[in-house]
Amino acid sequence: MSRKTLLVLIITVAALLVPVSLSQSAAATPVACSVTWGSQKKMAPSTVIGELVDIRSGRNECYDRMVLDFNSRVDGFVVSYVDQVVEDPTGVPIPLRGGARLSVAAHGPAYNDNGQPTYTFQDRNELLDLTGYQTFRQLAWAGSFEAITTVGLGVRARLPFRVLTWDNKVIVDVAHTW
């Protein structure tokens, strides 16, 4: 075998091995999920109010996310861990699965000016299918009264969370760990 052929063979084998070693090291590196959010009450005053039109959720490597979608800009909310989420305005307790409960109240009704619903659901106790989520356990309807819509979010444990508003959304992220 000539030196040139041997050199080409060595370079080819090395080139084939590099992606394998890189992918193995990347797969072995855990995702850094450091959060500084905390678990205390978070709130923001309302300057604009939209009508709730959808609720959805998603999973991230570091947190589970719930999004309240409104038909126009919204910015007011109160989100906190509570001993018991209660229905607004009756005060009836809402049972939730999980080791902790978040009350999520957004400043915006789930009905229009004529009193017609803008958000509807099939099961008030299971607004979304949260099967497979690492942190979320259950999302239940707690009411929409006097332009404030409330849902109860059952989570695995009292974990750090953050609340974001972006255009027509109120976003709640709950971390998987401290």
UniProtKB/TrEMBL annotation:
Keywords on record: Signal
Pfam families hit by this protein: AMIN-like
InterPro entries cross-referenced by the UniProt entry: AMIN-like
Record domain AMIN-like: where: 51-176
Leader peptide range in chain numbering: 1-26
Name listed for the protein in its UniProt record: AMIN-like domain-containing protein
Upper taxonomic lineage: Bacteria, Bacillati, Actinomycetota, Actinomycetes, Pseudonocardiales
